[in-house]
């Protein structure tokens, strides 16, 4: 189970509450690191996540296969709220949401696997880690993009461990296509090595080449590979890299 994530989440919750209590009207309205969202919208999203965990029937939700698109729905529905309303929503639902997540740490719900749109399918006990990750990033990076004191919030081991656990569970499913391509590329690269340093020297010896000549031919492969990167690396940066 991931009981430690509940402790980490309570710490992140308190950090959010302490930060929100200090925000000025200008800071609430400042642009965040989330495209198109103000600091207030990020805080509203954090509140809405807890609300949707504790009582999903009482909050607007999206049905898209994209989690980010679904997250826009309650935020846009509350776009005209005041900062006090957003703060009240967070206060109301964060405790209830954490209590609900804590209940997911116990059998039989802990190992029940549920679909989370394009995040993949995960056992319910890992959801607490996902919300620690959500808070950790939104506070320090998205709100922190405008507010240095948010960017400088502590990075303690408990929150980092919970965040990393979620990433280890989620990334293989969220990035399955990219990881598949990496795996295929790695296979091809290892095949090249096997041919150049394993099979070809045997064929060269069978053809009667001396050990010295076989060594020269075997060395050509890493030499061309290494020197070629001086050109192809820069070329890839200019025309080969995809956003």
Description:
71% of the residues lie in helices and 2% in strands. It is mainly α. The chain has a two-stranded antiparallel ribbon with strand order 1-2. The two termini are 36 Å apart.
Model regions low in confidence, pLDDT < 50 over at least 5 residues:
none
Residues in β-strands, percent: under 5%
Q: What count of helical segments does DSSP give?
A: 10
Structural class: mainly alpha
Order of helices and strands: HHHHHEEHHHHH
**End-to-end CA span:** 36 Å
Largest sheet: 2 strands, antiparallel
Residue share in helix: over 70%
Give a topology summary.
Blueprint: H1 3-22, H2 25-29, H3 39-54, H4 67-77, H5 83-103, E1 113-115, E2 121-123, H6 127-143, H7 148-151, H8 157-174, H9 176-206, H10 211-240
Antiparallel strand pairs: 1-2
Keywords:
two-stranded antiparallel sheet, mainly alpha, 10 helices, elongated, 243 residues
Compose a concise summary of this entry:
By secondary structure, the protein is mostly helical. Helix content is 71%, strand content 2%. Strand 1 (113-115) and strand 2 (121-123) form a beta hairpin.
């Amino acid at each position: 189970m991931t009981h430690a994530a509940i402790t980490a989440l309570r710490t992140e919750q308190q950090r959010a509450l302490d930060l929100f209590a200090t925000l000025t009207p200008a800071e609430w309205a400042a642009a965040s690191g989330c495209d198109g969202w103000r600091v207030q919208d990020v805080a509203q999203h954090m509140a809405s996540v807890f609300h949707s965990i504790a009582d999903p029937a009482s909050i607007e939700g999206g049905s898209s296969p994209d989690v980010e698109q679904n997250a826009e729905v309650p935020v846009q529905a509350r776009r005209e709220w005041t900062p006090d309303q957003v703060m009240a929503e967070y206060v109301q639902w964060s405790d209830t949401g954490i209590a609900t997540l804590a209940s997911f740490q116990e059998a039989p719900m802990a190992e029940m696997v549920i679909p989370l749109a394009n995040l993949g399918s995960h056992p319910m006990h890992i959801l607490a880690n996902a919300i620690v990750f959500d808070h950790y990033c939104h506070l320090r990076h998205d709100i922190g993009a405008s507010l240095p004191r948010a960017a400088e919030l502590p990075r303690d081991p408990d929150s980092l461990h919970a965040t990393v656990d979620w990433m280890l569970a989620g990334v293989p499913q969220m990035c399955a296509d990219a990881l598949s391509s990496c795996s295929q590329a790695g296979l091809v690269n290892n095949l090249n090595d096997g041919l150049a340093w394993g099979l070809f020297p045997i064929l060269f010896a069978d053809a009667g080449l001396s050990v010295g000549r076989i060594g020269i031919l075997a060395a050509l492969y890493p030499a061309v590979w290494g020197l070629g990167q001086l050109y192809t690396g820069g070329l890839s940066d200019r025309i080969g890299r995809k956003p």
